[in-house]
Amino acid sequence: MFRKILIANRGEIACRVIKTARKMGIATVAVYSDADRNALHVRMADEAVNIGPAPANQSYIVIDRIMDAIRQTGAEAVHPGYGFLSENMKFAEALAREGVAFIGPPVNAIEAMGDKITSKKLAAEAGVSTVPGYMGLIADAEDAVKISNEIGYPVMIKASAGGGGKGMRIAWNDTEAREGFQSSKNEAAASFGDDRIFIEKFITQPRHIEIQVLADSHGNCVYLHERECSIQRRNQKVIEEAPSPFLDETTRRAMGEQACALAQTVGYTSAGTVEFIVDGARNFYFLEMNTRLQVEHPVTELITGVDLVEQMIRVAAGEKLPFAQSDLKINGWAIESRLYAEDPYRNFLPSIGRLTRYRPPAEIVESERAIRNDTGVFEGGEISMYYDPMIAKLCTWAPTRTQAIDEMRLALDEFELEGIGHNLPFLSAVMDHLRFISGEITTAFIAEEYPDGFEGTTLPRDLLHRVAASACAMNRVAEIRRARISGRMDNHERVVGTDWVINIQGESLQASINADREGATVTLEGQDYRITSDWLPGQPLARLDVNGTPLVMKTGKIPGGFRLRLRGADLKAHVLSPRQAELAQLMPEKLPPDTSKLLLCPMPGMVVSISVEEGQEVYEGQTLATVEAMKMENILRAERKGVVARISVQAGAPLAVDDVIMEFE
To answer: Where in the numbering of this chain does the Lipoyl-binding domain appear (predicted)?
Structure first.
């Protein structure tokens, strides 16, 4: 077994590998860029080596810098994680020349399967059903338009060396094909150092289901069942689960056996994933094989009990797999929510900054439930503009899918995160969405259910009343504390009332409260709510029991009440005396400022290009500017017809959120 391994990656996956290596008694070496000097993976590793400036193309994907770190530390093996150099054949070859083990597949398998064009050709030759498309190299944008028309819209434009949603666009017409081709090439070059693009037919109403395979160098290959990855946004997975609520045992076995056959055809060893598109009739089509560990591997580990990182290390050291296919059963259900530094209220645009508060729910492993949080950040750390916006992967496990969803709801409500925009509210909203609960999902779920973006959720009436009753009980605790203030004048004792009005989510609810030593009973709209909690004023998280059911809310003080966040909703609950409520109705409403004639930057980033000129008339949907953030290009379009009055920035300029890009007449 190896004595020391180097992790050629950063963030949560580097931390994940370090945890398993530590469990196995293997020393670890971290590499880091200037931006990651104080990162969590650097703190966790036994050694750490600086490999250059912040941009990945000057540090994490520079093979020579990684090789220098290996020589400095004497590492015997390298785990590449995912992204960066994980599927780079030249990196694997460089390690082989140096006599360093690559904790991944052999070079020929990376070459055959890591390149998406080659892998599709091999799959087709092997008789595997593949999606129609053009596998050759595409010269330019006009060539892309021609090919797209031959295939038939809609088409998927994809980077050959891509992954993680980078370098991917869906085009429904010639204009989108032309723009998507150039953006995909730019993203592919920046993220992978390879700008080759291919185009395939985009199948509507598909499910994205993948098979986890694991193979050793002794001829053994097994599949560890499937993962449902259909909840995606811009081709980036957001929520995954294992197993899939859609597959039956016959389809599962057929997909698994086909995945293993494909892996063995190319002499694959280590962990890998074969991705399929599955239609409504359970016909499946090969998409690609990812020759690395997947981001969403924890859900597979939770339902099988197999540590995939450990098995990758053991396979790289020449060991046999310790189990056969018949040993790998599905135990329970697991769900993973990817927590991103993306603001859902700004159409999921990237957010950067300092994590002023980062308190994930406690990780637990019990017979009937489990919570796991894979992360690479810490409270006080910064989310950088240079890398992927992932903050953490929150996973829950339970015996059934319904129970796993219930556990995820509470875990998301308990997750405290402040300082940046993030998608926690959106993840919570999905857990309550009837279509997700039913399991009737496709890769178009987010686009179909949130066509205008995410604007928060409206709590159902029964839950809203539980929240309102809880706010009333919390207000009583705060009122009692205020009534006990020292230094009062004689005969000026303050009495806490029993009758209150709760203004919340546009409703005005009448309530009365009767408290005792164990808790309080709130009568709201004729319904009694028995509430117990140890919450105290000033605590940012309130855990309550309401009529025997747990309720968790992020809590903040506002004048006359509380800001309450749970289940994707962000509420202001004003708890007022009857007289205060009467007077509050007379207060004028404050209107927001008018920004309708401004194009504001929706995220921190850099201007790639300005597509219009001052004095130019623009039409609805026309491209105005392109802004790059976190390795993704974002095209900003006109919302209506108008004339450009002034352009405030130029290409290459850095921008903060809400910086003015241009003004209109």
So the answer is: 586-665
5 vs 105: CA distance, rounded Å: 16
Here the contacts of 16-19 (C-beta below 8 Å, separation 24 or greater) are: 16/81, 16/309, 16/374, 17/79, 17/81, 17/309, 18/44, 18/45, 19/44
Distance CA 633, CA 605 (A): 10
For the segment 10-37, the average pLDDT, to the nearest whole number, is: 97
- Residue 281 pLDDT grade (very low, low, confident, very high; cuts 50, 70, 90): confident
Average pLDDT, the chain: 92
- How many Å apart are CA 176 and CA 310, to the nearest integer? 44
Quick one: tokens of 142? 């006009």
Asked if 242 and 300 count as a contact pair (C-beta separation under 8 A), the reply is: yes
514: nearest Cα among 545, 544, 476? 476
Q: What is the CA radius of gyration of the chain?
A: 27
Neighbours of 118 (CB within 10 A): 15
d(CA 397, CA 96): 39
Determine the pLDDT at residue 397.
Answer: 98
CA distances from 477 to 484, 533, 557 (A): 11, 10, 13
**Closest C-alpha among 530, 525, 556, 524 to residue 544:** 530
Contact 539, 555 (CB under 8 A): yes
Residues 4 and 30: their CA atoms lie apart, in Å, by 11
- List all residues 6 or more positions away from 506 whose beta carbon is below 8 Å from its beta carbon: none
Residues 614 and 647: beta-carbon distance below 8 Å: yes
Q: If DSSP codes are grouped into helix, strand and coil, which group holds residue 21?
A: helix
Cα(248)–Cα(82) distance, rounded to whole angstroms?
A: 30
Which structure tokens are listed for 215? Answer: 């193979």
Choose, from 12, 76, 187, 288, the residue flagged as catalytic.
288
Task: Say what the pLDDT of residue 489 is.
Answer: 61
Q: What are phi and psi of 642, to 5 degrees?
A: 180, 180
| Whole-angstrom distance, CA of residue 522 vs CA of residue 515 | 8
Q: Give the three-class secondary structure for 181.
A: helix
Whole-number Å distance between alpha carbons of 192 and 62: 11
For residue range 93-118, list pLDDT tens digits in order: 999 999 999 999 999 999 988 777 77
d(CA 642, CA 619): 7
pLDDT tens digit sequence for 140-168: 999 999 999 999 898 999 888 766 667 88
**125 counts as catalytic:** no
Nearest to 442 by CA among 203, 274, 242, 169: 203
Structure tokens at 192: 């992978």
Give 192's Cβ-side CA count (13 Å radius): 29
Query: For residue range 164-215, what is the model confidence (pLDDT) as tens digits?
Result: 667 889 999 999 999 999 999 888 888 788 888 889 888 877 999 999 999 9
Please give the model's pTM, rounded to 2 decimal places. Answer: 0.83
SS3 state of residue 82? coil
Q: Which residues of 47-79 are buried (b: 16+ CB within 10 A; e: fewer)?
A: bbbebbebbbbebbbbbebbbebbeebebbbbb
Question: Given this model, what pLDDT does residue 494 score?
Answer: 62
Cβ(138)–Cβ(157) under 8 Å? no
SS3 583: helix
Tell the residue number behind the tokens 């595409």, with chain if given: 138
Residue 403 is predicted with a pLDDT of 98
Q: What is the DSSP letter of 423?
A: S
The pLDDT assigned to 544 comes to 97
d(CA 58, CA 86) in angstroms, rounded, equals: 16
CA atoms within 13 A on the CB side of 661: 31
